[in-house]
């Protein structure tokens, strides 16, 4: 087997980390590759689920004695605390690893500090290898831990002229089955799905992650959150079924903002305390406008169908923009065709001041 560079090994570790997306929260996704003393791959692993073995432990078990004198290439700084599992720093030191190569440092004050522990034990540590890619692969967790509220993705579906429904209120289906399958896969990667009570009253959605072809539910379901200022969600609404956990978030419980509705920053802080690190905002246009006006959206994923309606509700309501100079500017990061539709991924630009 040919030797590989630490740069190549980090690229592989980043790919491995992605396999844990949607199942590790409130822990991060992490990948690890162990190179033996000759630079050949001796073991690899990823963190698969919260409470399970960390990526380094899986990779070390696979490497066995070949880890001694070798290099551990890991997407995130090895943890340095005992939680449901022991510290990965200790495992790496005991295995005799000579060098640890890290993509990004751990911002968690409880688990961080692994670099110092490794160096104190005589392990060489190199940080920042493929840092931008390692950061991007774990952006939701890293962002949420740094600021202590979840990473927010706004998802919408619209026609090419920006309509979310026809004038008679019909909206099934604006986008194709391929796009809807893609949305269900997206739901499976987040910790919570958020809608407003208006969406529940109008559409009675399930908000579960499932296989559209046979109706089977995904193994892991996100928390269903209904932002319902006055408690209008019907007792028989489908979001109240037993398919997944549901939180009807009212102003009385969460707190009210200046407009008397649910205080959105308080809602996100409460979701973080419940273990949510990434959330999917699915509707409707009024709630989306409120999140955008408050600067609470981190990423936008829009599914645009090759249809025109010319009239009807728009995908986005008032977002606090009253003149073109105040428009919310976006950076497009990906445009992909999904069936006949386009999936547009964009990041809102940070505003000065």
From TrEMBL:
Cofactor: Zn(2+)
Pfam families named among the record's database cross-references: dCMP_cyt_deam_1, RibD_C
Gene Ontology MF terms: 5-amino-6-(5-phosphoribosylamino)uracil reductase activity; diaminohydroxyphosphoribosylaminopyrimidine deaminase activity
InterPro entries from the UniProt entry: APOBEC/CMP_deaminase_Zn-bd (IPR016192), CMP_dCMP_dom (IPR002125), Cytidine_deaminase-like (IPR016193), DHFR-like_dom_sf (IPR024072), Eubact_RibD (IPR004794), RibD_C (IPR011549), RibDG_C (IPR002734), Riboflavin_Biosynth_HTPR (IPR050765)
Cofactor note: Binds 1 zinc ion.
Keywords: Hydrolase, Metal-binding, Multifunctional enzyme, NADP, Oxidoreductase, Riboflavin biosynthesis, Zinc
Catalytic activity, as annotated: 2,5-diamino-6-hydroxy-4-(5-phosphoribosylamino)-pyrimidine + H2O + H(+) = 5-amino-6-(5-phospho-D-ribosylamino)uracil + NH4(+); 5-amino-6-(5-phospho-D-ribitylamino)uracil + NADP(+) = 5-amino-6-(5-phospho-D-ribosylamino)uracil + NADPH + H(+)
EC number of this enzyme: 3.5.4.26, 1.1.1.193
Keyword Zinc listed: yes
Residues covered by the CMP/dCMP-type deaminase domain: 4-126
Pathway: Cofactor biosynthesis; riboflavin biosynthesis; 5-amino-6-(D-ribitylamino)uracil from GTP: step 2/4; Cofactor biosynthesis; riboflavin biosynthesis; 5-amino-6-(D-ribitylamino)uracil from GTP: step 3/4
Similarity remark: In the C-terminal section; belongs to the HTP reductase family.
Alphabetical list of PANTHER family matching this protein: 2,5-DIAMINO-6-RIBOSYLAMINO-4(3H)-PYRIMIDINONE 5'-PHOSPHATE REDUCTASE (PTHR38011:SF7), DIHYDROFOLATE REDUCTASE FAMILY PROTEIN (AFU_ORTHOLOGUE AFUA_8G06820) (PTHR38011)
Function: Converts 2,5-diamino-6-(ribosylamino)-4(3h)-pyrimidinone 5'-phosphate into 5-amino-6-(ribosylamino)-2,4(1h,3h)-pyrimidinedione 5'-phosphate.
Name this protein carries in UniProt: Riboflavin biosynthesis protein RibD
């Amino acid at each position: 087997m040919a030797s590989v560079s630490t740069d190549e090994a980090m690229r592989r570790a980043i790919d491995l980390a992605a396999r844990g997306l949607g199942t590790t929260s409130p822990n991060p996704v992490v990948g690890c590759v162990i190179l033996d003393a000759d630079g050949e791959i001796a073991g690899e692993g990823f963190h698969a689920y919260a409470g399970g073995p960390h990526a380094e432990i899986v990779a070390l078990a696979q490497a066995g004695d070949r880890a001694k004198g070798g290099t551990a290439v890991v997407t995130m700084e090895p943890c340095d605390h005992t939680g449901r599992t022991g510290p990965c720093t200790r495992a790496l030191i005991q295995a005799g690893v000579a060098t640890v190569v890290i993509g990004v440092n751990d911002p968690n004050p409880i688990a961080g500090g692994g670099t110092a522990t490794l160096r104190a034990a005589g392990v060489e540590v190199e940080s920042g290898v493929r840092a931008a890619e390692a950061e991007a692969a774990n952006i939701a967790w890293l962002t949420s831990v740094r600021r202590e509220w979840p990473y927010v993705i706004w998802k919408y579906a619209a026609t090419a002229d920006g309509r979310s429904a026809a004038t008679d209120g019909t909206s099934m289906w604006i986008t194709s089955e391929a796009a809807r399958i893609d949305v269900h896969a997206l739901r499976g990667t987040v910790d919570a799905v958020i809608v407003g009570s208006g969406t529940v009253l109008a559409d009675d959605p399930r908000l579960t992650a499932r296989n559209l072809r046979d109706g089977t539910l995904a193994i892991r379901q996100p928390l269903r959150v209904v932002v319902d200022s006055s408690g209008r969600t019907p007792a028989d609404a489908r979001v109240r079924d037993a398919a997944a956990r549901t939180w009807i978030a009212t102003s009385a419980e969460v707190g009210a903002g200046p407009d008397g509705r649910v205080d959105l920053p308080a809602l996100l802080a409460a979701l973080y305390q419940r273990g949510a690190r990434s959330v999917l905002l699915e509707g409707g246009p009024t709630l989306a406008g409120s999140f955008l006006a408050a600067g609470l959206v981190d990423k936008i994923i829009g599914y645009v169908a090759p249809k025109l309606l010319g009239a009807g509700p728009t995908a986005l309501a008032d977002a606090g923009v009253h003149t073109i100079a105040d428009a919310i500017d976006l950076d497009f990061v990906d445009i992909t065709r999904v069936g006949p539709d386009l999936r547009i991924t964009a990041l809102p630009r940070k505003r000065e001041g």
